[in-house]
Design goal:
Elements lengths: L8 E4 L6 H11 L4 E3 L3 E2 L14 E2 L2 H9 L3 E7 L2 E6 H9 L3 E5 L2 H7 L7 E6 L3 H11 L4 H18 L7 E4 L3 H12 L15
Parallel strand pairs: 1-7, 1-8, 2-7, 3-4, 8-9
Antiparallel strand pairs: 3-6, 5-6
Length: 202
């Protein structure tokens, strides 16, 4: 087993960059090798969601008590609900002999940097800002203001990724097959050559 395989893999990247597609394919190709840590949340379960599988659903009081106790690797608030990755959730995956994969926002990445988790940090980047804009608009699911908001967030995420030491590796998703080959190699603990981040303008 390669040394890096034992370290959790933190994946981040802008909305619309194709991260979920890469992760879905990885899990389909290697059903026994990887697992997501199950996040805690204070939001109400949506129809069909299973407690302990999709999320660990909890109350705000219990969540904040766990925060005070140092029980989270990272946590954040979105739309009035708290979300977090517990230390226990990550440990339980390692105990199963699987590699833990964390799919999180930049805010979470910054928090993890302050812990002793020692993961591999991977950033999935678009080939350019204009390509990302085209992808987001092509979805047709968001209003123009929402697309612009996602794009503004993406620029901040790419700007953070450009900071020295922000991430160990970068994969530019310009071609899905090429990106997946590199992504799978990283997930399996192999060494790859990091891609170059796109410029912050069109």
């Amino acid at each position: 087993m390669l040394a890096d395989f034992a370290r959790p893999l933190v994946c981040s990247g802008p909305s619309g960059v194709g991260k979920s597609t890469l992760l879905k394919r990885l899990f389909a190709d290697h059903p026994d090798k990887f697992a997501f840590s199950v996040s805690h949340t204070t939001r109400k379960p949506r129809p069909g969601e299973v407690d302990g599988k999709d999320y660990n659903f909890t109350t705000r009081e219990s969540f904040l008590a766990l925060v005070a106790d140092g029980g989270f690797i990272e946590h954040a608030e979105f739309s009035g609900n708290l979300y977090g990755t517990s230390v226990q959730a990550v440990k339980s995956i390692a105990a199963q002999g699987r590699r833990c994969i964390l799919d999180i926002e930049v805010q979470g990445v910054r928090q993890i940097k302050k812990t002793d988790l020692n993961p591999v940090y991977l950033f999935i980047a678009p080939p350019s800002v204009s390509a990302l804009r085209a992808r987001l608009q092509g979805r047709g699911t968001d209003a123009p203001e929402a697309v612009q908001k996602r794009l503004d967030t993406a620029l901040l995420e790419i700007a953070y990724a450009k900071e020295p030491g922000a991430h160990d590796l970068v994969i530019v998703n310009d071609d899905l097959e090429r990106a997946y080959t590199k992504f799978q190699a990283v997930a399996l603990g192999e060494k790859i050559e990091s891609d170059v981040l796109p410029p912050l303008d069109d």
